[in-house]
Design goal:
Layout lengths: L3 H8 L4 H8 L2 H21 L1 H6 L5 H22 L3 H8 L2 H26 L3 H22 L6 H21 L4 H19 L4 H25 L9 H8 L1 H18 L2 H5 L4 H13 L6 H29 L6
Helix pairs in contact: 1-13, 3-13, 3-15, 5-7, 5-11, 5-13, 6-11, 7-8, 7-10, 7-11, 8-9, 8-10, 8-15, 8-16, 9-16
């Protein structure tokens, strides 16, 4: 799960026929958009089940495969959306390529940490990390972009921090994995916000930039006889499916973004970590301590405050001014 899908949704194109039919029926357009959003976020929420199926593949190899197969899956998507000219133009800009190399590194680290969490029975920690992500975004906006924090937002961030502290005290260690996931995800989003690149094009270039490293790593594992591939055809098929697994929800999110307001779309993002939380506790039976309870309660309340404040602000903006 990345910030990329949220950006991609706002700009990826759809077919003209769909646009015409949707625009003629606003309620139907919103309903379709909600359906696509649930599909996308639900998919990301339950995707740990897929990564569990290939848990015998080392996390580094899984990320390398994900990069390679994603490139193959993104090519037809770029052709279908007619983004190749923009991709070519972006590749000619050294400044943009350097920034995208940094974001690609952050994205790969986030992928690696998430896959490691899933394959090492730490889905609960990944869920906590992605619940924390919107609040880290708020903090980063204040620190790096000098954005003004309203009292409700500041209180939400402090409350989330209190939850992390409670978990640290109760468990006896800092939830490093959760914090790493939230920080790398937020840092990725912050830099992509600063990069003047269309989201789908950006994601494609990021994966292409990581492709030589991924291929080199896989060749090295083959030479050292540690490559977990070409040994079990059913597992190989699942590994190759990491490309569609990465790009398919992006298509659904793109369709949702065409039909919903960006602010509305943001409310669906909590489906994903909620599903991960439920999987961790009820399907994988991970240890859920009192510290986890304190942390999740604090963060859920913080998110509730943050979302309520965002909704009130959105209504103020959308409401017409009173004429006296």
């Amino acid at each position: 799960m990345t910030l990329e899908p949220q950006q991609t949704a706002a700009q990826c194109s759809d077919t003209r026929n769909v646009e015409l039919s949707a625009s003629s029926n606003p309620s139907g357009k919103s309903l379709e958009g909600a359906g696509y959003a649930v599909l996308a976020y639900g998919f990301w929420g339950f995707v740990p089940i897929y990564w569990k199926l290939i848990a015998s593949v080392p996390a580094m190899q899984t990320v390398a495969h994900r990069v390679g197969w994603s490139v193959l899956a993104l090519i037809p998507l770029l052709l279908a959306t007619k983004k190749m000219p923009e991709l070519t133009a972006t590749l000619k800009s050294k400044k943009r390529l350097l920034l995208l190399f940094v974001t690609a590194t952050l994205l790969s680290l986030n992928w690696l940490a998430f896959i490691w969490a899933v394959t090492n029975n730490a889905v609960l920690d990944s869920s906590l990390g992605y619940f924390m992500n919107p609040l880290v975004n708020v903090a980063f906006g204040r620190i790096f972009l000098k954005e003004h924090l309203k009292p409700a937002q500041l209180f939400a961030v402090i409350l989330a921090l209190a939850g992390v502290v409670a978990l640290t005290v109760q468990v006896g260690k800092v939830p490093g994995l959760s914090i790493f996931l939230a920080v790398t995800f937020s840092a990725y989003g912050l830099l992509r916000k600063m990069a003047p690149v269309e989201p789908l094009v950006g994601l494609s270039i990021e994966t292409v930039l990581m492709l030589p490293i991924a291929i080199g790593y896989l060749i090295w594992t083959q030479m050292t006889d540690t490559l977990v591939f070409f040994k079990n055809w059913s597992q190989d098929v699942l590994v190759a499916a990491s490309g569609p697994v990465t790009t398919l929800p992006l298509l659904w999110f793109a369709a949702a973004g065409k039909r919903l307001k960006y602010s509305t779309l943001g409310f669906f993002q909590y489906i994903s970590p909620t599903c991960q939380f439920l999987l961790a506790v009820f399907l994988y039976h991970e240890v859920f301590t009192r510290g986890h309870l304190y942390a999740f309660v604090c963060i859920w309340i913080a998110l509730g405050i943050y979302l309520t404040d965002s909704l009130i602000e959105a209504r103020k903006i959308s409401s017409p001014p009173n004429k006296s």
